[in-house]
Design a protein that fits this description.
single chain; mainly alpha; globular
Amino acid sequence: MKTLCNFISRWMAALVLAMAVVAVFVPEPFASIPTRIINPMLGLIMFGMGLTISAEDFRVVFSRPRDVLIGCMAQYTVMPLAAWAISVGLGLPKELAIGVILVGCCPGGTASNVITYLAKGDLALSVGMTAVSTLIAPVMTPLLVLALAGTMVEVDTIGMLLSIVYVVIAPIAAGLLCQKFLPALTKSVSAYLPAFSSIVIAAVVAIVVSHSAARLLSGGLIVIAAVVLHNLAGLAVGYGIARAFGMNMRKCAALSIEVGMQNSGLASALAVVHFAAFPLASVPGAIFSVWHNLSGALIAKVYAARCERQDG
């Protein structure tokens, strides 16, 4: 079973891509699943994150606050501003622009930790950044969405704050409590959590894509272009910021990946709940979930080679 789980985790990008393609061309099985199930599914992923977070993960926050602060500031400036600029530059329709901005305003995704590990980057910094950006997301994400999309549509900042608390913070807290009071159980399931998260993420992508399959086929190239540009901008600018602050290659890799990879599943969930009048708003998050895993797997090979050269 562990061998199978390792295989699923290693090929997460391929699994997500395959599910997305199936959902586009054969949407019926997934479209019959109501989108309201997405929030509980994301809650399960966050619960798994809570089971794996330890005190060691937060030690980097206190031992290297400068690195974490630089990373989180980059996270919540580069990606939101890039999302807004790309939406304006490409002339995206309002509902797609909302979706791209939502992706940009969300915290870092948990997949970034796996990609940083594969890239031989600074894993402690990556995990610390993910934890901090996630914990401050209930405040940062609604405020940024209001600032960047508030002129396009009415933004329920309090409702969005509560949604992030319910979907992200509460499940993580529950996972931490289980880890503290049920350590044996937590240890026994920890090996299976990456594979479980991979399967749930793939299912979320399939559900979101299936509900907009027809519209995606008719006009999906522009949103794919926006998502690809957004992700590449985050990876490149994140790397540039790390270099500008004199960080070594391992830190540069971690910061680049952390900035470029978003919690796009959360973006899709927020779009479904708070922007139901704009069905396409959930599509950029779904496409981002597919693309950033593919680009992450590729950039990990590049960064791993650079880290090895630096060590040599």
